[in-house]
Design goal:
single chain, mainly alpha, elongated
């Protein structure tokens, strides 16, 4: 099956909300598998090694997802309420800033996971679920 046919099949079987949830869930799972060692690393050398072993790519992918969401939220045709759009755009900007701090070794990955998990729960229809 060609990539175009695969994309068409996905778009015909999943709603945009389901696609967003799936994509965000996948990157969150990837971060979850790598974050603890980074957050507990004591030296910048250890953090750099973990970033080089794939965490940097995962963080960059997460940031690109949030950038895409921010761009979509900024479109005039976006049907979400202005308050919700503003809140999500603010979160997207926070994710960008926090990610840059992680890449510099100044911040932890866990807050990014917490935000992603919250958004995934909201996309599943469980926005009130308490963060772990």
């Amino acid at each position: 099956m060609s990539i175009a046919a695969y994309k068409r099949t996905i778009s015909e079987t999943e709603s945009p909300r389901q696609i967003e949830r799936r994509v965000l869930s996948n990157v969150t799972a990837e971060m979850e598998s790598k974050y603890l060692a980074f957050d507990q690393a004591e030296t910048s050398g250890d953090k750099l090694a973990l970033l080089a072993e794939g965490l940097r790519d995962t963080l960059w992918y997460n940031e690109r997802i949030w950038l895409a969401m921010r761009n979509d939220l900024s479109e005039t045709g976006n049907a979400l309420s202005p308050d919700l759009k503003a809140g999500l755009i603010s979160l997207a900007l926070w994710v960008e800033t926090h990610t840059q701090g992680v890449l510099k070794g100044e911040r932890k990955v866990k807050p990014l996971l917490d935000i992603n998990r919250s958004i995934v729960r909201g996309l599943e229809g469980n926005p009130m679920h308490v963060m772990e």
